[in-house]
Amino acid sequence: MGFSLFPRSVKFFKLFGEQNLKLNTAARHLSALFEEGADAEELCKQVNIIEAEGNLVSRNIARELSLTFITPIDREDIHDINVAQEDILNAIKAVSTRVGVHEPSRMRYPAKRLAYNIQGMLEETGAMLAILSANKKADSHMERIRWLKYESETLLLVGIGELYDCERHDYGSILEIVKWCHIYDRIETAVDRVDAFGDILEGVMLKNA
Length: 209
What we know:
Blueprint: H1 9-33, H2 40-67, H3 75-102, H4 109-133, H5 139-164, H6 171-207
């Protein structure tokens, strides 16, 4: 197939929306994973399935980009949005994998809130993508992402501090600290990647205003 000489804006934005929908679904599973009594094995399985489906969408976007001569927004912006969403999905999978492998003895409140914040931030990026296709402003959505990022930084500090405040220092409690340090590390990565994606979308909007 040769290059198309016509813009394929509907296709790119539709694919971005499909990609973002998978992110939001994975984030909802992640939030459910941190609820007491959750079926961790099933939820981790679902996140893995979504991650594999998301990889297909990402490859499809990359393929369409290589076949399209005129694009609705700059080519590098399409690439950056695609890679950013793929990275977030990988980060969510990394969190769920750590929870599934480590099997912590109980779920901690800061982790629950952090998973909820990731979900909230991704909902805002979905709204921003919809606005981007309509060439409108998204200041309120970016403000919400920044607020959730700020709250998440505080929650991470509280969560880590809570781990080291335990009075017991036997093998079991130390092992639990190690497990949660690994989980919180992956959660922090996921939060940072969603925040960076918001910055990318904001930059694209300003460029195309």
